[in-house]
Amino acid sequence: MNLIKRNAKGALNLERNIAIDETLVKFKGRVSFRQFLPNKPGRFGVKNFTLSESSSGYVWDLDVYTGKSGHDPHKGLAHHVVRKLVQDLEGKGFNLFVDNCPCKTLTEISAR
Asked: Is the separation of the CB atoms in 45 and 64 below 8 Å?
């Protein structure tokens, strides 16, 4: 997975507008981190958080959600995911767009 992510990052110079979104890859097999999201068309699958270019939709980085792990419970999953996905882009003038993310979380992220 790291090889795929490294190649994706090297294949494109991102435009200024980027977005983080939750996606569900439809999967009916057996893995411990398979999710059920009733509002998604596929409903069952593997949940990913993707960092992509807003205009083209090109996925520049992704984080596969494998369950509760290693994030500070006081700051929450959203904080952990956003920090992890934008760590290589901080201070470089990108405009980040998110959907359904509390504003408080983004304020905390920028304040560290």
From this structure: no
Give the model confidence (pLDDT) of 25-38 as tens digits. 888 788 877 777 78
Q: What's the token pair of residue 32?
A: 């411990």
Paired strand residues for 47: 24
Per residue in 74-91, pLDDT tens? Answer: 677 777 788 888 888 888
Nearest to 92 by CA among 50, 56, 60, 64: 60
Specify the pTM: 0.72
**Residue 76: burial class (beta carbons within 10 Å; 0-12, 13-18, 19+):** middle
CA-atom Rg of the chain in angstroms = 14
Report d(CA 55, CA 89) in Å as an integer.
Answer: 17
CA dist., res. 77 & res. 105, Å (int): 10
Write the single-letter amino acid at 32: S
